[in-house]
Design goal:
Number of helices: 16
CATH architecture of the largest domain: 3-Layer(aba) Sandwich
CATH topology of the largest domain: Rossmann fold
Helix content: 40-55%
Low-confidence stretches: none
Radius of gyration: 27 Å
CATH class of the largest domain: Alpha Beta
Structural class: alpha/beta
Number of strands: 8
Distance between the termini: 42 Å
Number of domains: 3
Order of helices and strands: HHHEHEHHEHEHEHHHHHEHHEEH
Oligomer: single chain
Strand content: 5-15%
Length: 402
């Protein structure tokens, strides 16, 4: 049986190098090589041209402007900027121009001290963490000391610059005013952020000193995603077992929803697993199954993580929706919630607490709650379904009053 199962799985195997479907599993040299191939296919060419125009003064010995790059998650802001700066460093080396860049990773929210810590580590090339309890002024002195002998140009790429959670103005004031005046190297910045409104929350004096240029990274369109997916297929899969229509459908799904390249590769990986379990060939049917299962899996995982009262409230809402043509008021939903609690031998919460749980479920997309005006009778919230049918069936089947 074991030999037969192993032989059957081998006969349906599509993924030859599955690590190329997950960048986190790729060694750094291979990941960089994949990114270089992506850019050689004329992806993000407009953004690369704009960056080249911004950075061109370096070739003449002049300081380029600071750049602020906006764009949703998964649109290639980080990899495009790093690819460009790497290429620029190579060109400057051939031209005899002193230029270097460093990458400050703030993708995880950091305090002001944590942001200075990441900046210090990026500048001195150290992997050690500076201990907590050091004064911010001392951290600033350590950062300045690391560059006292540097010359030429320095570009500091700050990823998710909006993730400084406390005293962000202190960090940015140091970057904009103090730092450039105290070091011999000529420094400029490339800021990356997902939030278009980030600049509005900054101190106007900081914005004035930075004198930045803005760029926007739009979500990938279907053609760009198609090229990215084709490269992944060539690297990771048995091409003879992959239909072109399946790749086009994945690109269409991803571009229609978010334009996120990570989501497209995730869907490709899921579709490959579905194909290996079924026919051993990746077709449009496997893509449809994978797309649906990703949505269902995430929703079911969220429902499983709910507290007992939240889960009973959700069951009560959908029990009522099943009997009232898919639209009910909050008051009607509360009555069904009470029945569910009585059947489960659990004491129900008050209607106000139930209303709070409805707000929570609306926030996470488990139910849709719209405020409806009743004229002189005031306002109420009208509840409707927002879950896939398969998830609702599983939820209501476990409801004691269903």
């Amino acid at each position: 049986m074991i030999r037969h199962a192993f032989a059957s799985a081998g006969a349906r195997k599509i993924a030859l190098h599955s690590s190329f479907l997950d960048d986190e599993k790729l060694p750094e040299p291979e990941r960089v090589a994949v990114l270089h191939e992506i850019f050689h296919r004329n992806i993000r060419i407009k953004q690369l041209e704009r960056l080249a125009n911004f950075m061109a003064p370096i070739m003449g010995g002049y300081l380029p402007p600071n750049v602020l790059i906006y764009g949703p998650s998964g649109t290639g802001k980080s990899v495009t900027s790093l690819h460009f700066l790497s290429s620029l460093a190579h060109i400057c080396e051939m031209q005899g121009i002193a230029f270097r860049y460093c990458y400050v990773d703030l993708t995880t929210p950091r305090s002001c001290f944590g942001a200075f810590n990441e900046l210090a580590i990026a500048l001195d090339g150290s992997v050690r963490r500076y201990r907590k309890g050091i004064a911010l002024e001392q951290m600033q002195e350590m950062i300045v000391a690391a560059l006292m002998n540097a010359t030429g140009f320095l570009c500091i790429l700050i990823d998710e610059a909006d993730n400084v959670t406390t005293d962000a103005d202190i960090f940015l004031t140091f970057l904009a005013k103090t730092f450039p005046k105290r070091i011999p190297v000529r420094v400029f910045y490339v800021f990356l952020t997902n939030r278009l409104e980030w600049e509005k929350n900054l101190d106007p004096r900081i914005v004035s000193v930075l004198k930045k240029q803005d760029m926007i990274f739009e979500p990938y369109d279907a053609l760009d995603l198609l090229e990215i997916l084709r490269l992944r297929v060539e690297k990771a899969l048995d091409v003879s077992r992959v239909d072109e229509g399946a790749i086009r459908k994945i690109a269409a799904y991803a571009s229609r929803e978010t334009g996120d390249a990570r989501k497209a590769v995730e869907l490709l990986s899921k579709a490959v697993k579905v194909a290996e379990e079924r026919s051993g060939r990746l077709t449009e049917e496997e893509v449809d199954i994978a797309e649906h299962s990703i949505e269902v899996d995430k929703t079911e995982e969220l429902i499983r993580s709910l507290a007992l009262q939240q889960r009973l409230a959700l069951q009560g809402c959908y029990a009522g929706l099943g009997k009232h043509r898919n639209r009910i008021s909050t008051g009607t939903a509360f009555e069904y919630y009470r029945q569910v609690c009585e059947a489960a031998s659990v004491r129900p919460l008050t209607q106000r607490r139930f209303s709070d749980m409805v707000s929570f479920m609306d926030l996470y997309g488990l139910i849709c709650a719209r405020v409806m005006s009743k004229g002189r009778y005031g306002k109420t919230r009208e509840l409707s379904s927002s879950l896939p049918v398969k998830v609702i069936e599983g939820l209501v089947s476990n409801t004691p009053i269903a």
